[in-house]
Amino acid sequence: MPSSYRVHRVVDADPQTVWDLLTDAPAYPSWNPAVVSLGGRIAVGEKLAMVSVVAPDRTFTLTVDRLDAPRTMVWSGGLPLGLYRGVRTFTLAPLDGGRTDFTMAEVFGGPLAPLVGRFVPDMTDSFEQFGDAVAAAAVRG
């Protein structure tokens, strides 16, 4: 398993539109084919329950660590005591013409990363689908 994943898109919508899309947890399955469900409220300190198409039989528990609207959002999850941890960062930057530079990256680490990483599904395609879905859904508004 790679120790990180990253997707980048230039979105033909302003950062606030993209931000509104990314911070509406219950709506994720309606626009994002990589997500089966996302339960919870996207607010600092809140827990999210994500089910993705790469592992539809597992629920990943994530914590919303940071929100800096409409620029940065950080989620994390993993094993207790930092033995294995994934940190997903969403970054939005305004571009000319009302467009948004969107990046989503996830970095995995911790002492058990080499062992646990063998059991984490490859998320390359899921990240690409997520990027495409953000770009398409934000344009639809």
TrEMBL record:
Gene3D superfamilies: 3.30.530.20
Transmembrane segments: none
Domain of life: Bacteria
Protein name per Swiss-Prot or TrEMBL: Polyketide cyclase
